[in-house]
Amino acid sequence: METSTLVWLLPAPPLLAFFLIILLTNRSKGLSHFLGIGAALLSFIGSMVIATLALQSGHLGEEPFTSVLNWFPTGDTWFQIGVWVDPLTVATLFFVAITVLMIIIYSVGYNNYGQPKGDHDAPGLQPQGATVEDEQGHKHRMPSIEPMYSRFFAFLSLFAFGMYVLVVSNNLLTLFVGWEIMGLCSYLLIGFWYAKPSARAAAIKAFITTRVGDVIMLLGLVYLYTLAGSLSYDVIFSEETLHLLTITGAPFLGVSAAVVIGIFLFIGTIGKSAQWPLHVWLPDAMEGPTPVSAMIHAAAMVSAGVYLVIRVFPIISAGMVHGEPTITMNLMAFIGAFTGLFAATIAVAQNDIKRVLAYSTISQLGYMIAAIGIGAYVAAAFHLFTHAFFKGLLFMGSGSVIHGVEHGVLHTGEDIDPQDMFNMGGLRKKMPITFWTFLIGGLALSGFPFFTAGFWSKDEILADAFAHSSWAVLIVLALAAILTAFYTMRQITLTFLGKSRTESANHAVESKWTMTFPLVFLAVFAIAAGWPGIPLDFPFIGGFIPNFIHDFVGETLAEHPEAVTFNWFPLLISLAVSFGGLILGWFVYKDVPAGAPDPLEKPLGPLYTLLKNKYYFDELYDFIFVRPAYWISRTFTYLWLDRTIIDGILHAIAWVAFSIGGIFRNYIDKPIVNGFGDFVGESVKRIGRSARFIQTGRVQQYMVMALIIAFGTLFYYLFLLSQP
């Protein structure tokens, strides 16, 4: 099989699994998850084969694997679609294939589908088949578990299909198709427990918020197609097209077309990757099952946003003079750095174990966006690569923790929130596999020096910021890094260390092997995924392993970026913020007793309240956008447009119809139609009255009489003829 044919087939198994589960196996839990895992495994094998062939090919950046087909006619030409495998595609396929497979395997053990939360009829939780009532008083019946279980694997498979389509596409239009498929799947999976009002609200919030960015991104694609006549990578990234975009002035803002297109595409990333100010949907997405959280944060969705801006970096950087960043890059550097610090501060005051990780994802994505903004697209791709492994590990680890505490809730009947870290503690001995793997993931997130993958990728971003003299970005990201280490150790300490603060935590148990196996598998990559990115000039250990990230991924662009020279200053910053944050987090939270408030609540005072309430952005958006939208829809749309205009037009049409009907009734129907009908009716009546005498008995008598008269007349004429 040719490589290009294999690339075409990569998205096929998840799509096939989706249709088979929906149409055929939705009543069988076993067959459904077997199809989901089998499809993910086939795509995983195909991705690994492609990665191996790509590494052996040499000069993949200059000669990517590609294949095109005609899709639909555009006048005298055809719009073509195809596949495109270059170094960035290979690196992305590698982590997508692994994390998708591990998440779907993990989902088999995480089998609490069809319930508001939890996997059994725990106290306060409604059983399957029960009728629940939401806040508006509407009643809903909880669905049976088999179709919900199968539906979950179908949606996960469709989610994976969307990401594979996005990664292997050779043009921005089919990339956008995969982009929107993932948007649909996020809506379906975030609101998977649709009987919960909060889950439904979170799904709608995610869908609407990301659509804001998607619409503007689509405008950017339209503008790009208008100028370039194509959306294929080999056309839009060519020197001729990039030069055209640079010299063409936009019809507004007084900037080049490249700047407008770059900003429009970046706004799509702001929505998809939950960057400020469109960050509000991602924390609420934790209403979905934990495998969904891992899928969104590690394998797809938010990773797709960063992948997009790395992919279109030639457009974003078009027009650079003497290495000075473009307007788009400066905007990205500001948004990314600000979001990184902004989200990290919020995570410090969150108690829900999954929401801490959600804000952590927003912060880490900010790191990647800021790196692209300063021109370090290889460092951004490296951090995207490592982040997928340790963030997928952390989310699935949090799901394992929640499962363990829920088991304690079932055993004790205690009425607590099993996701609140202040209801945990002491789980290190109760759940040893989850603890050690979560610890590895947490250390990778905090950038624990030398040992974890997160250190190498985060340190490269800081080193690039230092090398490019981006001092503001360096300082802001360093502050975000120390907060990251702090809230990570806060999370580990509150969850696993010390003594159990509730009976439910004291009765927690380790999760099933289908949940712990993916944790162990990803923990290996949370350590080893950073090794291929160790700088060659790094003291003592540099050069032992080839710098795969820079040498290979750097070939994606025609102009290969030079690796930054090692400097002790950014390294010392990495060591200081990592160790400082971890030590401070452990010191503050090591002895929190049961029922005690957060130790930061009193020292921070009003600031803690501000952080806990997420700077009141949800309330602000509700006041600025949601309430006015409801008011406008009721006042103008319902009362004025609907009730007055639309209903008025319909009532006027009805009045005209009734008037015309009255004219027809009085001048045509009654005198003519009814008159003719009455005449016909009267005639029929008279005929009927005349015919009533012609009844069966009398007819026989009349016939006999007629025969008698006929024969009598005949005999009379015969008698007359016989006379002489």
Describe this structure in words.
With 724 residues, the chain is mainly alpha-helical. Among the domains are: 219 residues, no CATH class; 74 residues; 30 residues. It is 69% helix and 3% strand. A two-stranded antiparallel ribbon has the order 1-2. A two-stranded antiparallel sheet has the order 3-4. Strand 3 and strand 4 form a beta hairpin. Helix 3 packs parallel to helix 5, helix 19 packs parallel to helix 23 and helix 20 crosses helix 25. The chain starts with a helix and ends with a helix.
| Structure summary, number of beta strands | 4
Distance between the termini: 122 Å
The gyration radius over C-alpha positions equals 36 Å
- Helical element count? 29
Tell me the β content.
Answer: under 5%
**Globular, elongated, flat, extended or rod-shaped: what is the shape?**
elongated
Short description:
By secondary structure, this protein is mostly helical.
